[in-house]
Amino acid sequence: MFDSVQTHYQSYPYPRYPLIASVRRCDTYALNLQAIWAYFNGTMPSPEAKKILIAGCGTFAPYPWSVANPDVPITALDLSERSLRRARLHCLLHGRLNIDFCCGDLSDQDAVDGDFGLIDSFGVLHHMEDPLAGLKALERRLVPGGILRIMLYSRYARREEESIRRAFRLLGVGTPQEARRLLNKARAGSRLARYLSNTDETATDVGVADALLHPRARTYRIDGLLEMVKQAGLKPLLFAHYGAFEGVSEEIGRLRALEKDQESPGNFVVYLGRTDGTILEKPSGSRIVLNPCLVSSVGFFNFGKLRIPARVGCDNQPLGFCERSFLRTFLYPVSSSKISGDKAEMVAMYKRALFLLEYSS
To answer: Is the pTM of this model over 0.70?
Structure first.
């Protein structure tokens, strides 16, 4: 029998981007396996780590992951056959062929084969009947040094959506059309009207269904998230929602202070690693190289300022002529021992942004 969440996504595959929608490779820089692996492990990924799992891929995620990692085998797993068909078609239309599409539950150890150096489960666990069991299942699929990225709903970032979702359930609202008729009656200045003015989800039926009609959605405070992560045998390595501090403990403190005032910077985005010592030690002696996703964007014939949206918490400075010239010096690996002074400060900034990778030589 279909789970209610599976039935939901069979009816409303999410998100509903046009099949012609494309992304610049530079915008996928934070999805690059080499960049993520080097950031946390200080090395380039080993052969056994060169596999990516998208656990709950929806209709679109396989495409940008493939753009970021064209030579890495990617497994895209989802409960919904309709979502997978849409994702497969999108990838085929854009020539992305390094993806294996699988229909199944991420908690099922037989759903996919093998272990992975990088797992992404963005906006998925909070829709599961047992999120902890799902997180434990993903932890078991990590190779030594493997990294898991999750996004979970924050209690206070989702406050308006959850209030509306509960009200719709009490009223028996079951379709996007019924929901939209009620939304259109929102009085000016009301909480509902304010919500509508701050979201674009209600522009499509699948957006309304995902935001306001979902059959199962949990929200978390930071301490609840940390407890679940700990029970799964994992630890936070980096918070990546916008504005997050680089230090994990500093960001946890900031989030706790915000929650005392019932505030949130947004939903939680966090990179996780195992607590059993399998995150690799960063070795001494290293080289610096440009993120592969940025190579074509820093060329001589690119003009104007290149703006790349922030993906790992910190702001990205626009890349003008001088910035691109600096980054071009790392098209080929440069020994870190040759970098000092102002150049070292710029390298540190671009390493934090994942524009530059440092790895053992």
So the answer is: yes
